[in-house]
């Protein structure tokens, strides 16, 4: 079924925007790691609480790893 407003679905627009961003990065010599870091950062920053959640998850994993090797006791 055709969209009556002749606009692309959101996922197609996202694909186009990512392709444009990638092209700009390539045109200006940005390496793929920097592009991916920037894309990930933009995604995380756009979701309220996501950055804090991921930081908390990382901290919990680090603490668990320390416990497993006996460098930290359990409370």
Textual characterization of the structure:
There is one protein chain. With 75 residues, the chain is an all-alpha fold. It has one domain. Helix content is 68%, strand content 0%. The protein contains three helices and no strands. It has helices at 10-27, 32-45, 50-68. The longest helix is centred in the last third of the chain and has 19 residues, at 50-68. The N and C termini lie far apart (59 Å). 0% of the residues are buried. The mean pLDDT is 90.
Question: What would the keywords be for this entry?
Answer:
elongated, 68% helix, mainly alpha, 75 residues, 3 helices, single chain
Number of strands: 0
Unreliable residue runs:
none
Kindly state the percentage of residues in helix. Answer: 55-70%
| Number of domains as seen in the coordinates | 1
N→C terminal distance: 59 Å
- Secondary-structure-based class equals mainly alpha
Q: What is the mean pLDDT?
A: 90
Please state the CA-atom Rg, rounded to the nearest Å: 20 Å
Number of helices: 3
Shape from CA axes?
elongated
What sequence of helices (H) and strands (E) makes up the elements?
Answer: HHH
For the biggest sheet, the summary is: none
